[in-house]
Amino acid sequence: MKPIKRSRLSEQVLDRIKTAIKNGTYKPGDQLPNERDLAEQLQVSRASVREALRTLGNMGFIESHVGVNGGTYVKEITIDGIIDPVSDMLGSEHQVILEMLDFRLVIETEYARIAAEQRRTEDLEKIRASLEQMEQELDSGEIGLGGDNAFHEAIALATHNSVFLKMLLVSKGLLSRTRETTLSITGQPKMSLEDHWKIYRAIEAGNLDEAATQMRTHLVKAQKNAEDQGVFKNDSA
């Protein structure tokens, strides 16, 4: 890697290391040079290198190990690994979780409509399997979050639309947190499962309008139930 000569050094260091990871100079599992060596290679301060490495870690590109094999290693680059930390930071904000329900109302209603048109046999099998998973979780005394997440993801997959899938991946962590919030309300898991079956049957029948209507009804009910229960009231209120 060539020396860096411009300002905002930590950002330049970040870009240089990230590029080296993306172009295969450093592959998943490879250990990066230590801070001192990187600073010498790039002709910057160790502080700039340290800040860049910290940011790359938060973005999911690298991870630090301690012990005998301690050091900084390149992680396998995945959408979840890069995007989920952003969702986690957004999800710490009360207002964002509330607004996420409005986002779901718009986006997931269309997911259901398009899934009813584009669904294939394997898609229906995945959706049904998610419902059975949720039933098993409820029978075990859980709130059914795993099955709930799998249900909505299976519907998004059934659209066979790459943009929809990327949007889902970007917001996956925050979507799960929003669902967990509503499923924690007494009685909501059972109602959600019943709604899910109605959505599934509409998608299975290829009824576009009914699938969209059932999804919208499901989300509106969950949102109203949460508001009625005061789930989204600020703790300081």
Compact description:
This protein has about 240 residues and is mostly helical. It is built from eleven helices and two strands. Mean pLDDT is about 85; it is low at about 90-95.
Architecture per CATH nomenclature, i.e. the level-2 architecture of the largest domain: Up-down Bundle
Give the DSSP E fraction (strand runs of 2 or more residues). Answer: under 5%
Return the average pLDDT rounded to an integer.
83
Integer count of domains = 2
Main beta sheet, described?
2 strands, antiparallel
Estimated helix fraction: over 70%
What is the succession of H and E elements? HHHEEHHHHHHHH
Please state how the strands of the largest beta sheet are arranged side by side: 1-2
Helix and strand content put the structural class at: mainly alpha
CATH superfamily of the largest domain: GntR ligand-binding domain-like
**DSSP E strands, number:** 2
Reading off the top of the CATH hierarchy, the class of the largest domain is best stated as Mainly Alpha
**Structure annotation, total helices:** 11
CATH topology of the largest domain: Four Helix Bundle (Hemerythrin (Met), subunit A)
Terminal Cα separation, in Å? 54 Å
Poorly predicted ranges:
88-93
CA-based shape: elongated
Computed CA radius of gyration, to the nearest angstrom: 22 Å
Sequence-ordered SSE layout with sheet pairings:
Blueprint: H1 9-22, H2 35-42, H3 46-59, E1 62-65, E2 71-74, H4 79-91, H5 94-118, H6 121-139, H7 145-158, H8 162-170, H9 172-183, H10 188-204, H11 208-228
Antiparallel strand pairs: 1-2
